[in-house]
Amino acid sequence: MATVLTTGFEVEGADGGPLRGVLRTQSAEDGRPVVVICHGFKGFMDWGMFPKIADRLAHAGFSTISFNFSGSGVGPDRESFSEPERFSRATFSNDLTDLGNLCRHVKGGRLGEVALKPPKKLGLIGHSRGGGTAVNFAGSDGGVDALVTWAAISHVHRWDDATLQLWRRDGRIDIPNARTGEILPIYTDVLEDIDENATGTLDIPGAASKVTAPWLIVHGDRDETVGLNEARSLHELSGEKAKLAVVEGGNHTFGSRHPWAGPTREFDEALGETVGWFSRYLL
Hints:
Shape: globular
Helix content: 25-40%
Number of strands: 12
Largest sheet: 8 strands, mixed
Structural class: alpha/beta
CATH superfamily: Alpha/Beta hydrolase fold, catalytic domain
Number of domains: 1
């Protein structure tokens, strides 16, 4: 098996702080296709399944880039939730800016202090909220050559009216972090962002109809967080240009947990579909 080199990097995030990531590649000098991996809400690049996805794709011949969105809340050790203020003020627009800036760095051949030859092709894979961000980016940017979404959201309006009313009244909403046990505030920055941009740059349905890259939509039929109906909606909006792969028995993370407890049938099926898709359209 070919050796995969792993190199950390840091560039500026959308909130002005650091955006940290990891490049995995067999060679940074041959311009091989790059796949950028986008985690979801309360996720981070080293959560459970994401390093396994990155490693598998790197061994399959791609350079892979994992990163923490600037509002992930995860600090420089890539594990500790040591930047809660950044998490509390994270927005969908900042996520989109982070992804756009990162892709521009990739195409420019440099990730902070890390050099790589500009890739021949670029792929995106996004999970949950990260999937919605990947759709928004791919729908507005012609530089994406292949797209895969796992359990992707189909709209940015994720809360009911009662929750929104209390949130706006109190200026914050508290949510639990199941991994750390902390209660985390989220301020109204994200709501103000949605109010301003939901029908513009954050219009996932509109972006889905404009995606021209080959698009694989992977979703579990037992997803308890983002219903299968959202995947069907994205597929319909794509005008049937995309392929919908429904994983029987798959939940929101396809059976994956953090810390990693080994692969599941559902995870292996989702990953196999993904590697095959990128191999078909990027290699």
